[in-house]
Amino acid sequence: MLKKVATTTVALALVAGAALTTQTQSANAAQGWQVGVGIAGGLAAGAILGSALSQPRYYAPPPAYYPAPAPVVVYRPAPWTPAWYDYCSRKYRSFNPNTGYFLAYSGQYTFCR
């Protein structure tokens, strides 16, 4: 990539210099110092144009893709089923299977869901 950029810059400088030099030589062939000014101006213009075209271009990175999180599935069995009795008695030590309530930390009895 770097070799290609350098070659392109040199080629642009030579083309611009040749165009200005040819035009200057045919118009002012009798005055030799203007030929040198044309060559120098052509090379300078080509170098400026080539360096401007060879500058790296920066692009913003694509936005990050964050997929939607998977839904959280919480298994709670239906009340008064054998699985519900088993779930509540394992989860709450104070679960009363006759009423379906347990004693919460707040001091109130809460229905097991």
List keywords for this structure.
113 residues; BA14K; 3 helices; 2 domains; two-stranded antiparallel ribbon; rod-shaped; mainly alpha
Describe the protein in words.
Has immunoglobulin-binding and hemagglutination properties, and can bind to mannose. Essential for virulence. May be involved in LPS biosynthesis or polysaccharide transport. It is a single chain. The chain is mostly helical. The protein has 3 helices and 2 strands, in the order αααββ. α1 runs antiparallel to α2. It has 2 domains: 52 residues; 30 residues, no CATH class.
Rg for CA atoms: 42 Å
Major sheet strand order: 1-2
Report the strand count. 2
Which spans of ≥5 residues are poorly predicted at pLDDT below 50?
none
How many domains? The number is 2
SSE sequence, one letter per element: HHHEE
Number of helical stretches of at least 4 residues = 3
Distance between the termini: 66 Å
Helix content: 40-55%
**Helix/strand structural class:** mainly alpha
Tell the overall outline. Answer: rod-shaped
Residues in β-strands, percent: 5-15%
Largest sheet composition:
2 strands, antiparallel
Mean pLDDT: 78
Protein name: Lectin-like protein BA14k
Family: Belongs to the BA14k family.
Pfam families: BA14K
Main location: membrane
